[in-house]
Amino acid sequence: MQLITALVDGLGSALPQLIPAAVNAITTIVQGLIDNLPMLLDAALQLVLGLTQGLLDAIPQLIAALPAIITSIVEFIIGAIPQIIDAGIQLLTSLVSALPEIITAVVEAIPQIIEGLVTAILGSIPQIIDAGVQLLISLIQNLPTIITTVVGAMDGL
After folding, report:
1. Residue of 41, 24, 22 lying closest to 33 (CA atoms)
2. Residue range 46-75: average pLDDT?
3. How far is CA 92 from the centre of its chain?
4. pLDDT tens digits for range 77-87
């Protein structure tokens, strides 16, 4: 207990001297970073330019490797066809075995589906009427063109 008390007392008496030293150290570090920002920016730009040039230099190698990559992918898919077929059979079998549950769930949901459809249709009646009116107006406006086209088609017969 005496050791802890002595440690706390020592820290308490040293803090007034430690805080200015810590602030001074932080200020020195920040000033060093500020003084070196142009150098850091230049180094970052050189890094980006180097990466860009490396990528540009690698493009021909990547293009040259494309046939091998595509061939490997196709060979993998062809090799995996039995697994794909097996997975398809398992999926189909699972769906068939779950069909009674699916049908039951759909039958139970039919009232909600019908209610949703009726609500949507009733809510859309103003838009449906507006679309019908616009269609009728367009039909009436284009009636001379329609008649001319129909008569022209009949003359061709």
Report:
1. 41
2. 90
3. 30
4. 999 999 999 99
